[in-house]
Amino acid sequence: MAGLALCTATEISFNMLGFSAALSTNIMDCLQNVFSKKLLSGDKYKFSPPELQFYTSAAAVIMLIPAWIFLMDLPVIGKSERSFSLSQDVVLLLLFDGVLFHLQSVTAYALMGRISPVTFSVASTVKHALSIWLSIIVFSNPITAVSAVGTVLVFVGVLLYNKAKQMQRDTLVQHALNQSAEAEQKHMIHDGDVTSAK
Q1: Burial (Cβ within 10 Å: 0-12, 13-18, ≥19) of residue 123
Q2: pTM above 0.85, yes or no
């Protein structure tokens, strides 16, 4: 998170409200990852990735309808009470965006069913950092030392997380091997005692 904050701190359009919104979005994404993982691998309720995408999309539509009505420039109920029209290009772009978002969401839920929510959140952080750098390249924003340090911090954090995850996995494997060896040794000692008793 600190790396992403440094990446965006030097943006020309940076303001605290936008940063707070981005931070709250990241927090909500992490919470959504945890609850989605519970729903994808739960005992009582277990959803498939397309089912989870359907229910979250339906809930999002219901929550956004009031904002859509009051903030969009719709006829009679919109801000200016003017007639509202969509061009064919806008409709096609909205449909294309919807299809891509659906595919991205179903893929994300399928991936989340296979990895931990923390790993997924770490991967999302890298995705956000790469998006920031893509916007820097596309919009020709100047690259500052602070944004470069932020990006390095993101990647160092990811590398440290992967290293810690690997060490944890190795420790668990070693612990399981030790327990297996101890159980086998006890079994051999017990068999030896039974044989000597005969």
Answers
A1: middle
A2: no
